[in-house]
Amino acid sequence: MTRILVVDDEPQILRALRINLRARRYDVDVAGTGAAALKAAATHPPDLVVLDLGLPDIDGVEVIRGLRGWTAVPIIVLSGRAGSEDKVAALDAGADDYVTKPFGVEELLARIRAVTRRLGTSSEAVPALRIGAHTVDLADRSVRRDDGTEVKLTPTQWSVLEKLLRHPGKLISQRQLLQEVWGPEYQNETNYLRQYLAQLRRKLEDDPARPRHLITEPGMGYRYRP
Predict the structure, then answer these.
(1) Residue 5: what pLDDT?
(2) Residue 226, exposed/middle/buried by CB under 10 A (0-12, 13-18, 19+)?
(3) Nearest CA to 173 among 225, 135, 222?
(4) Is 155 left (phi over 0), alpha (psi -120 to 50) or beta?
(5) Whose CA is closest to 92, among 198, 186, 214?
(6) Distance between CA 61 and CA 39 in Å, rounded?
(7) What does the pLDDT read at residue 114?
(8) How far is residue 92's CA from residue 65's CA, in Å, rounded to a whole number?
(9) Closest to 6 in 3D by CA, of 120, 114, 105
(10) Per-residue DSSP letters for the chain?
(11) Nearest-CA neighbor of 164 among 141, 190, 197, 134?
(12) Do the beta carbons of residue 182 and residue 112 sit within 8 Å?
């Protein structure tokens, strides 16, 4: 059973999500503060986190960074902050998706299903691939620098990277990437792609400002250049 940790300081939201998620056979833990969330995640590691940014003790972005220090668990932000700067900050910190309050429960459930589908994506055996000074092994979902250091990627970063690396040299359209990674309802969220490609370049390219392997084709899409 998938364990979801819901983090929000509004008791009515915690109660509503606990009821709705348990009705759909999710195992649910709840926390009302950032500190309680980090403790709960460490004590009973969740399979997915639904996180409010406006917490009373620790800003939600810092909670994301705290989680990302040791886990790649998918994180869906649920927040009343609708500004693009807040979304960028959360995505840059390692969030996988962003839902703005007020929200529909069915929309949130659809995004949870999309994330869990990405977690279940299988990797067919493929040879190891190179990006700069890194070796990417899609079979065991690992990235290592030439010095042996492992580079950690979030589940969504993996999904984006895998779509590109499985088709070397081929242009993958923005619409195709959004549909295959996030789902058909995300076909206009091109800002997601910009953020995740920027994150991947910072982690994998020798010079992220002048990428040699993860290439943007303006107005069209992206490609992996071996």
Answers:
(1) 97
(2) exposed
(3) 222
(4) alpha
(5) 198
(6) 16
(7) 79
(8) 9
(9) 105
(10) --EEEEE-S-HHHHHHHHHHHHHTT-EEEEESSHHHHHHHHHHS--SEEEE-S--SSS-HHHHHHHHHTT----EEEEES---HHHHHHHHHHT-SEEEESS--HHHHHHHHHHHHHHHT--------EEETTEEEETTTTEEEETTS-B----HHHHHHHHHHHTSTT--EEHHHHHHHHT-GGGTT-HHHHHHHHHHHHHHH-SSTTS-SSEEEETTTEEEE--
(11) 197
(12) no
pLDDT by position in tens, the chain (length 226): 789 999 999 999 999 999 999 999 999 999 999 999 999 999 999 999 999 999 999 999 999 999 988 888 899 999 888 777 888 888 888 888 888 888 889 989 988 887 777 655 444 445 678 898 999 988 778 899 999 899 999 888 998 998 898 888 888 888 888 888 888 788 788 888 999 999 999 999 999 999 999 999 888 889 998 8
Distance, in Å, from the CA atom of 213 to the CA atom of 205, rounded to the nearest integer, reads: 7
Amino acid at 56: P
N-term to C-term CA, the chain: 39
